[in-house]
């Protein structure tokens, strides 16, 4: 629907002014619904979000998480030629009249849906997209002429709207982080990580590219997501001249680590299985890779020359990476299970820093002090 007068039906005593949307009519659960395209500039004006000051049982939506909005709006503004937003779903508290373009055949499903301006539009699914669109328009008003798909359902009351929200989100599953890295062509670090996984002699063939967890019998040593977070930590704040330079630097680091971990080499030589290594040792788990990435970041910041930083890694060859090593309990392992939370990553980094004779930073010192006092 456009905002100029031709998009509005003529006022009549019965109906007053109307919104008129080009639409396709469909049927689900014996109820008609309509799919249309709406200019972005109209989204904040006509689509309401359920008031967050109501009690949960009186709302048809969750409370808006305002912390998500900046990233979503930046995604639109920063990628004006390449962003993708899925459809909004809205309930209309008012009469909807569909006018098909033909009286029979396919034309019965194509036409215009007329909605009184007095009707209330309530977002059932897509409230964060709606808020992000509003913020993006403030930064770039030219986006207002672009459109987003909207699915209109008739508002059958609070219970029905709440059930729609539950049904729309019941089977929604966030994709594994690994496949997100695999398919992300905007994130430079994702590109570098994919390149490492596919071409590094130390990693090629042993990185799970799709899943973010490894099954007990998997032939892979690492997940792509774990390698991504570790490489991100490695290159954080490092002056990089190009993607090729970053890939070479990260590749050199992980190959240097590989030389100090004989079990990784034994897997490539088929003298050990990846499953046995993961079960018996810590070094192929995400927490260890992340810790090694942070450790490498310190060395790279101190000296970008490989001849200077590589020998400083040598003490890692004497680290007992076996999961039975009691030193790991409370650091990387809690109650017999590998822990991935931030505090355990820091404690694992601390352990490796001490092995290399590196000083702890302020946060690391505080976490270590709490650990030694038993406050973990």
From TrEMBL:
Q: Name one Pfam family in it.
A: DndB
Q: Which InterPro entries match?
A: DGQHR-contain_dom, DNA_S_mod_DndB
Q: Which domain of life is it from?
A: Bacteria
The name this protein goes by in its record: DNA sulfur modification protein DndB
What is the species of this protein?
Answer: Nonomuraea dietziae
């Amino acid at each position: 629907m456009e905002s100029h007068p031709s998009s509005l039906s003529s006022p009549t005593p019965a109906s007053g002014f109307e919104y008129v949307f080009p639409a396709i009519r469909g049927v689900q659960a014996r109820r008609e619904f309509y799919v249309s395209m709406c200019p972005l500039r109209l989204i904040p004006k006509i689509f309401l979000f359920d008031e967050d000051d109501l009690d949960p049982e009186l709302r048809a939506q969750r409370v808006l998480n305002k912390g998500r909005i900046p990233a979503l709006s930046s995604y639109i503004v920063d990628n004006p030629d390449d962003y993708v937003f899925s459809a909004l779903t809205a309930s209309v508290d008012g009469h909807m009249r569909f006018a098909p373009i033909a009286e029979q055949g396919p034309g019965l499903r194509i036409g215009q849906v007329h909605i009184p301006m007095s009707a209330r539009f309530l977002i059932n699914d897509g409230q964060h997209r709606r808020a992000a669109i509003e913020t993006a328009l403030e930064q770039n008003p030219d986006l207002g002429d672009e459109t987003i798909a909207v699915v209109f359902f008739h508002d059958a009351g609070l219970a029905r709207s709440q059930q729609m929200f539950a049904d729309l989100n019941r089977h929604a599953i966030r994709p594994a982080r690994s496949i997100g890295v695999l398919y992300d062509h905007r994130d430079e670090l994702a590109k570098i990580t994919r390149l490492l996984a596919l071409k590094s002699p130390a990693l090629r063939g042993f990185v799970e590219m799709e899943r973010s967890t490894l099954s007990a019998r998997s032939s892979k040593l690492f997940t792509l997501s774990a390698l991504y977070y570790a490489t991100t930590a490695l290159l954080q704040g490092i002056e990089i001249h190009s993607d090729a330079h970053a890939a070479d630097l990260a590749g050199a680091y992980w190959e240097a680590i590989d030389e100090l971990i004989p079990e990784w080499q034994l897997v490539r030589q088929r003298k050990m299985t990846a499953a046995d290594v993961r079960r018996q040792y810590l070094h192929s788990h995400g927490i260890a890779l992340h810790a090694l990435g942070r450790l490498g970041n310190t060395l790279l910041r101190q000296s970008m020359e490989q001849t200077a930083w590589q020998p400083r890694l040598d003490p890692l060859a004497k680290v007992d990476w076996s999961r039975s090593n009691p030193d790991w309990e409370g650091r990387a392992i809690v109650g017999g299970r590998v822990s991935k939370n931030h505090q355990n990553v820091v404690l694992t980094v601390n352990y490796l820093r001490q092995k290399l004779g590196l000083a702890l930073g302020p946060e690391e010192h505080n976490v270590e002090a709490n650990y030694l006092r038993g406050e973990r």
